[in-house]
Amino acid sequence: MPYIRGLYKNLFIKIFSKTYFITMKKVLLALFVFSFFYTNAQSTYEQVHSLFQAKCTGACHAGALPSGNLDLSGTTANVYNRLVNVTPTNPSAATSGYKRVVPGYPYRSLLMKKVNHGLDPMNDLIAAEGNGMPNTGDTLAKEEIELIRQWIIWGAKDTGVAYNASLIHDYYANPVNAETTAPLSPLQEGRQGYQVKFGPVFLEPQGEFEFFQVYDPHLSAGVEITELHSKLPTESHHWALRSITPAGATAMGVAPVAGANFNTQILVYQYTKFMAIWQFTDELVLPAGTAHFQNPSDPLLLNLHMHNYSATNILAASAYLNVYTQPMGSGAIEMKTGLASYGGQNPFALNIPNTGTPYTLQNVVTSPGETRYFWNIQSHTHQWGKDFDMFKRNSDGSKGEQIYEGYYNENYSFNQGYYDYAHPAVRTFEPMMEVNMDSGLIVEATWLNNGPANIPFALTTAGEMFVTYFSYTNQLPSALEVKKINGEGTAIAISPNPGKDFFRVNYTLHKPAYTVVELYNAIGAKVKNIFAGAQTEGYQNLAIDISKDGLAAGVYFVNISIDGNRTTQRLVVNQ
Hints:
Layout: H1 2-15, H2 18-40, H3 44-55, H4 76-83, H5 91-95, H6 110-116, H7 142-153, H8 165-173, E1 193-203, E2 208-215, E3 223-231, E4 236-244, H9 246-252, E5 257-258, H10 262-271, E6 272-278, E7 283-285, E8 290-294, E9 300-307, E10 315-327, E11 333-334, E12 336-341, E13 351-352, E14 359-365, E15 371-380, E16 385-393, E17 399-405, E18 426-436, E19 441-447, E20 455-456, E21 467-473, E22 482-485, E23 488-491, E24 493-495, E25 502-509, E26 513-521, E27 526-535, E28 538-545, H11 546-549, E29 554-562, E30 565-573
Parallel strand pairs: 8-11
Antiparallel strand pairs: 1-10, 2-5, 2-9, 3-7, 3-8, 3-10, 4-6, 4-9, 12-21, 13-20, 14-19, 15-18, 15-21, 16-17, 16-19, 22-23, 24-25, 25-28, 26-27, 26-29, 29-30
Helix pairs in contact: 3-7, 7-8, 9-10
């Protein structure tokens, strides 16, 4: 692939150039020191095994009849083989598909649930899963529970050091920056979907990392993703979601993989499909009639980039994602998400000179023969970024209408007068914006480098990036049929339609209005008041939960009145 060859070519040039020679000497020395201590240190699993011998084998997990038929005494090899990917004897846990330990998945590891004791409130035992362990007076300290959790997160390997033990020891001695609090999951909300958690991964003061990790939701069939709700720390630089092929997932493995490794980035470009990115906690509710498509064989690839801005405190970095779904074939058209980066196949073309004056580069994004209906667009630079603008491109190559101003705030509601690279604006188009990609878009970014040297492309914030993210469809969904209300074109949509239990009514008000939304059955009798009240200008999102109201399957009608102007949409509820 040209991109891969270009990466290796430029990486080779940089590594062996005079500019990078001293840096590489330092890297090699650090690798030597790390290798020495890695070889001579006790492995993470050996620490876990020692903990079991001290706290778990005395009264419960040893002898002829150990609790749960789990004998934790014996050699490291014996205990490992009794734990990893072994089905537990507890019927409830076995029915849920848990193993005693599932590498990479604390939430599917009954051992982790047994020792959790509130460390992660979302991973405590339910009654049918029995008692916690140890259930004697010799309980585990939080740092010891974290040892087991980190061992599982990092792949539950029987050799090697999975994490920095001293970092975690120092964190639990002074846990100032607590983990991100989990939101309610789709299941807890009574909706279809699942929750994903990344981490925690511990980060030293002023430290930075980017990790990728495969997450397999174990889908029995394909789904359409209609909403994606993120929750992440304020220190997050970005939190991104992709789907990955089975071959890519195998190549990545189950443990977190460093994003600053170019081999990792090559795997990402080879095997993944981009879905969404967040710089801050946000709820992405896709336009009615659209969805991301997820195949049952393709896991997700999580990507968290963190920067700990504290000079003194260790950060426990974790992030959550709620994925709301409907069955594949519910009638949605596919929402696509992509990115365009400066330099194309050669990202090292990006270089910001240290002129001390604003420096602007332009990137043209085209796709001949394609029409796109853009739902949202957003920008991405690192710390030297000062502005980011996008324009429709005229057929003669000149700038047309400006569609993105980097000075806007996070949700693009007002011009704040400056560009915030850490929390750049996300502009959403309601209705979606049509663009003839023969002409395409012009994207401009501006930087200011007052430093002693040029700033090259880099995967961390030590260097720079110039990336545009966008979500779009190649056709308008039929759900976005325009209804004329009060002389304005208002897109009123119900999704999914047909559906089963949970529906959304979406529309945009062009000015404040008094709105009444009601549900009628097939013979014209009103069965539910959905909403009545004043609404502000802008996008509206109402919910209809058929299951909670005990309504039968069949045909219904949603009646919408906006300032007295009425329209009706047909709703089909399946069994």
